[in-house]
Amino acid sequence: MTMAEAKTKAAPAMDHALLSRLTGALGDKKTVEKLCSDFGQLYSEFLPDIFHSETGLDMQVHYKGHESGLMNDVIADLGDNVVLADASLRNWSPGFVLGCNNSFVITLMENLLGALPETIEEPVHRPLSRIELDLSSMVFDKIANVLRSGVNAPGGFEPLIEKPHNAEDRAKVEDDHVDQFAVVVRMGIDLGPISSEFYLVIPQKALLKTVVTVPKSKGQMSRNRKEWADQIAEQVRRSQVTLEARIRLQTLTLKTISRLTAGDVIPFKEKGDVTVDVSANGKEMYRCEFGRAGEKYTVRVKDNVSSEDEILRHLMG
């Protein structure tokens, strides 16, 4: 081999795990286990008190262990019945992920809407609705603030949390993306008869530099129950709900319907005020009158088909 050939020959790439270990982005098993259990202790002691002081609900939180691996792999391993939110905390980690099993958010919503404990059942596996996603952002806010209170992040900065999303809506990574090693801290959370989990997905580069300290005063992290209720109400008010209006048309024979073509006219069933049924997510809510204001067609509410509580319960789910 000539000198020129030797210079042009590409050097073999260093093993990703070895490089990460040498640069402080991958720790040994014992160190990682200790740090994850420290997070477990932090949440076990603080999160139940915060939820109780702000909602009046009793829940238990306990550490369930951890998993290590490439960040996007461990997130994918959480499954599709979770809600996720990307987050950052200045002077600690520019990017970590919060996760929560959908069943906890659904159960929390039922409790906050006043459901009796004996009527609450194990939720079905499904994506969260828009309003439930709004509630999950408040759950993540509590989880992130407990984290902030216990880690060595100088400057007193607040965590920045992006809008939560269902796991199935998570953006795909590019094919050439070089992933980093991370851990998933698994926390069990029991609310009434329902047992669920929430998760911290932390890059090991940030984890290995972390000192977890349990704060002395729990009360400093809690707000009062009224503020929590007001915050939920505000989230609900800002949530967008798509309404659908259905108008009854005149009865036609199948023969006539099969021959309809562009330009044919089908009369409304009523000859006077035209009745319109308004629904959302498949549930009828109002009976209205069909009308027009300027160039826009409108409906005017005449009667409630469902009570306010029934409407809220349906839309929340």
UniProtKB/TrEMBL annotation:
Top-level taxonomic group: Bacteria
Keywords noted in UniProt: Bacterial flagellum, Cell membrane, Cell projection, Chemotaxis, Cilium, Flagellar rotation, Flagellum, Membrane
Keyword Cytoplasm (UniProt): no
Domain Flagellar motor switch protein FliN-like C-terminal: 234-304
Biological role: FliM is one of three proteins (FliG, FliN, FliM) that forms the rotor-mounted switch complex (C ring), located at the base of the basal body. This complex interacts with the CheY and CheZ chemotaxis proteins, in addition to contacting components of the motor that determine the direction of flagellar rotation.
Family: Belongs to the FliM family.
Protein name (Swiss-Prot/TrEMBL): Flagellar motor switch protein FliM
Organism of provenance: Ciceribacter sichuanensis
